[in-house]
Task: inverse folding
C-alpha cells in the first residue's frame, strides 16, 4: 500500500528533503541539471505545500509535487523559468494574484519503481486540483513538460496562449518544450474531462479514503488523506 499526504513545507523539513532527493534523482536520470522548480528556497516559504506518495511505513518516497502560492518572498517557478524569455509573466501572475489568488503546480516527479502501477502523474494532477478548495486561489498555473501535457489538459488546464510562442517555450534546454498552463476554475473544475472531474470531486468531498489504482502492471492500494496538514493542526501526518 502507498500513502498520499499533503503538508505545509516549512513545518516538515525532513519530509521535504526526501522529496527533494527523489526529484533531483529523476531529473538527473533525464540529463536535466537546470530547472527552476528544483530550487529549494521554497522550503522556507510559508506559502508552499508538498504532496508525497510514500511507502506504507513512510521510509521511502516514490513521487510527489509541490503547490506554491503567489505572494510570498519566493517567485513562482514559472516566473523564474521564463521571465528572461517573456517578462510579461510577472504582470500576468500579479494580475491573477490580485484578482483572488493564484499559485503553481510544480516539481512533479515519479520514481520508476512504481511505474505502471496506476499512480503516475495523473494521480498527482488529480490530488493537486482536489485540494485547491482548501487554498486561497481563484486560478492556478502550471508549466509542464511534453510528458505530462496530456494529463494536464485532462484535468482542466488550458494553454496560456498570451505568453511565449502560443504558450510554449524551449525549457529547460533547447531540445525540450514546456507549456505554460492555467486552470481558470479550480473550484468547479468544469474544464476537466468528466471522468477525471468525478475522481477529483470524490477526493475533494471525501479527502480520507482508500482507492485501488490500476495500471498496466497491475493494481495498487493507495491510502489518501488530502486534508492539508500543518504542525498546528490536530491531524497526525504519519498515520
Result:
Amino acid at each position: 500500500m502507498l500513502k498520499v499526504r499533503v503538508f505545509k513545507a516549512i513545518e516538515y523539513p525532513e519530509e521535504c528533503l526526501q522529496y527533494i532527493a527523489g526529484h533531483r534523482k529523476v531529473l538527473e536520470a533525464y540529463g536535466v541539471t537546470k530547472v527552476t522548480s528544483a530550487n529549494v528556497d521554497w522550503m522556507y516559504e510559508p506559502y508552499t505545500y508538498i504532496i508525497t506518495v510514500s511507502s506504507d511505513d513512510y521510509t521511502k518516497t516514490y513521487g510527489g509535487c509541490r503547490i506554491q502560492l503567489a505572494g510570498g518572498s519566493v517567485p513562482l517557478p514559472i516566473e523564474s523559468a521564463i521571465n528572461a524569455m517573456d517578462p510579461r509573466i510577472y504582470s500576468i501572475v500579479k494580475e491573477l494574484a490580485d484578482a483572488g489568488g493564484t499559485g503553481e503546480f510544480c516539481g512533479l516527479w515519479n520514481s520508476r519503481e512504481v511505474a505502471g502501477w496506476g499512480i503516475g502523474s495523473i494521480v498527482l494532477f488529480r490530488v493537486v486540483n482536489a485540494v485547491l478548495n482548501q487554498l486561497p486561489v481563484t486560478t492556478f498555473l502550471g508549466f509542464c513538460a511534453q510528458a505530462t501535457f496530456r494529463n494536464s489538459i485532462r484535468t482542466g488546464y488550458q494553454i496560456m496562449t498570451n505568453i511565449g510562442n502560443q504558450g510554449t517555450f524551449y525549457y529547460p534546454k533547447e531540445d525540450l518544450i514546456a507549456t505554460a498552463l492555467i486552470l481558470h476554475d479550480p473550484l468547479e473544475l468544469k474544464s476537466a474531462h468528466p471522468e477525471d472531474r468525478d475522481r477529483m470531486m470524490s477526493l475533494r468531498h471525501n479527502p480520507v479514503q482508500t482507492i485501488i489504482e490500476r495500471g498496466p502492471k497491475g493494481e495498487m492500494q493507495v491510502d489518501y488523506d488530502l486534508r492539508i496538514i500543518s504542525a498546528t493542526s490536530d491531524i497526525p501526518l504519519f498515520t
Observations:
- The longest strand covers residues 218-229.
- The chain has one domain: 2-229.
